[in-house]
Amino acid sequence: MAASSTSARPHLVTQSSTHTRYMEMLLDLDKIPRLHNIYASFFTWLLLAGYVVFPATFTTVNKSNKITQAAQTELERQILSEVRNAPLLYIAAVCCIVGSSGMIWLWWKWRSNYIWMINRIFLPGLLNSLAGLISTLVNIYSAQNGDFSVTAKVTVIATGVCSAITALLFLLYNNWALSRVKERHQKEMDAEATKV
What we know:
This protein has helices spanning 2-7, 21-28, 34-53, 65-70, 74-82, 86-109, 114-142, 150-195.
């Protein structure tokens, strides 16, 4: 009778007591304030907005005779030939600066959580930078007939550099830093499984 009662008992399942860095990052995703998630979306969107506004400042429309004749000095003519809409140039620059600064601040604030940075900062920043670069190039080759004005060159360089930086950071954190954390996690989980 005693032998049959012990076989009826359920098998004791032990839970892993291992708490890895990867598990900690996943659990910490819930601890990041919702406002910071909103900030991340806002700052990456603001960066994109700046990239979308920049092409509106490119020249060729300003090459009309009416505006050029109204210019009093050679300096005014030169400025008119380079920038079509100066207020939009300032708006685009402010959007890009504030968006980039906000992304850098959030990167610094949550630098220990690779998963959050990849998903909220680097990947959206990369995609928005690429969208801005594509938009700029389409504008240059369609509306500007391939004419690279000073603002067009600056915009291509800025969006290209931001694309390269965010791509580098995405690849670095995703393929190196996070991969190492995942490998360590897997080794610790395998070691825990062999103990049981």
